[in-house]
Amino acid sequence: MIGKADRQMSFSDYWLLGKISEVSYYHRLRTWVFNNLNEEMFQPLFSYYGRESISPVYTFTAMLIQFEKGYSDREMEEESRFDDRIKYALTAPRDFDGIDAVTLCDHRKRLFNSEIGKEIFIKTISQAKEVGLFNKDNLHIIDSFMIWGSCARQDTYTMIYQGIKMVLRFMKFYEMEDASKKILKRTDYEENIKKPKIAWENEKEKAKLLEELVKDALSLVENIKTKKDIKDDLKKAIELLERVALQDVEITNDGHVKMIEGTAKDRIISVVDDEMRHGRKTSSKLSDGYKAEIITGGEKGSVVVGIEVDGANIADGEHMSDLIEQSRRNGVDIDKLYGDCAYSDFEEIEKRKEEGTDFCIRVPEATNPSGGFSKEEFKIDLEKGTVECPNGHIKQFDTEKTQKHEQVTVKFRAEECNDCPLKDQCTKSKKGRTINIHPYEKEIQEQREYQKTDEFKEDYAKRPNVERNISELTRHGGRKGRYRGKLKIRWQMIMVAINNNIKVIMKHISKICNRQIKKGEVCPKTA
């Protein structure tokens, strides 16, 4: 049964009122919570009968504080008992006994599978509009940042070994362990070790271990698949085991197992969190975990209005369309969107322009990995359908395809390129140079010319505002995942965004108050 917040103030609480600065995070959070959260909002998570819980207003606020300050559940338990600032922010009295870690964990589990966090997030966006944060200085920017996973990346041997142990635990729970003993060749799966102990510098031992693990895994999978009425959790476990057993290996015609070269597409990197992925934000910044994409809006782009989470291997810009639609559902119409090169998706841009959304997106410059002439050194005439190389050779292409936004590949003959005095500056291929005409080549050419103007440079200079937002989000709970799986990580990012929006709203209200006090007018203290 849902508990009620005790907001009855004592003399001790009145003593505290003047001790905490009105510009502090604690005071601003308290003011917002006092005026915006109540138990009725959280009633769907609780029964109407049974033992009364602690108020979910306290626990939800405590979770916001955790992200802001980086507290663990145990640290939050201690802070909520002994730190007057925390009690003040929770809207709890000074004699409040605190929130134990078990209760925090229980309430969080309830919130994971509900829409309450999302509803409160949308509420902060509406409030930002009400207090005037969306005005003539409104700025919408899209960008992404990495979220470090809470689990370590595992190698192939560890994943298969731990995957087998996981399936065996489920089989034991469903009283199926006797069947597994007849299938498996290895007998060390009940040992409390991360992976088998072998001479890891010995390639023969590693090859033998790999073959044993893969064959044990596949035998286990095939055996369970023949059973009827497999429980969903066991079914999910065997599907995961089958995938990790096969993603890095090749089974030869004679039945031997060997490691393949390269990396499988969308490769799982941990059986503890199978939705984590290996990705990179730049060529030098590697990350294992997830990627968040956000759209910010309002004054100087300070309010988070849309957020999506996916594996770290997803390309930037993958969720641009989803985020624009999400922002609209959240009550924000985007008149102009700023973004870097990752968001130069002209198919999406053209579609949105027809709907009334303008864009300030940078197009990447043409490059040649071999260091020779880039595509820009070739004269592409889209009306005549010709491509002229730096040495004057001309090739024709079908303009009907480019008008239909289809990609066209133009190939210069090998004999032309091999005899060309500029070949070393153009291509290393013996088959000649190839030029790809983008489906939106015309728009790209126009944008590249526009990017050279002072007008574009002045306009595009607004985009870096989002870096401040990302810095704020990552410093206060958004850099490292606390949980496992996209559902929970997305909830974490929503909570981080709520915190950000509350701080922006309350700071804006303080500015309004200061201006009105100077004019002798009444100050709107609440949001």
Radius of gyration: 29 Å
Largest sheet: 6 strands, mixed
Label the overall shape: flat
Oligomer: single chain
User: Roughly how many Å apart are the termini?
Assistant: 29 Å
User: Please, what is the average pLDDT?
Assistant: 90
What is the number of E strands?
Answer: 13
Strand content: 5-15%
Q: Structural class from helices and strands? A: alpha+beta
Helix content: 40-55%
How many separate helices?
19
Low-pLDDT stretches are: none
What does this structure look like?
The protein is an alpha+beta fold. It has helices at 11-17, 25-36, 56-69, 73-82, 84-90, 101-112, 116-130, 156-173, 177-183, 203-225, 232-246, 320-329, 346-354, 399-403, 414-418, 441-450, 454-460, 465-478, 486-518; strands spanning 140-148, 249-251, 257-259, 277-280, 286-297, 303-311, 336-339, 358-361, 379-381, 386-388, 394-396, 408-411, 434-437. The strands form 4 sheets. Strands 1, 4, 5, 6, 7 and 8 form a 6-stranded mixed sheet that branches. Helix 3 crosses helix 19 (486-518) and helix 8 (156-173) packs antiparallel against helix 11 (232-246). InterPro entries: IS1182_transpos, Tnp_DDE_dom, Transposase_InsH_N. Residues 28-110 form the Transposase InsH N-terminal domain. Pfam families: DDE_Tnp_1_6 (PF13751), DUF772 (PF05598).
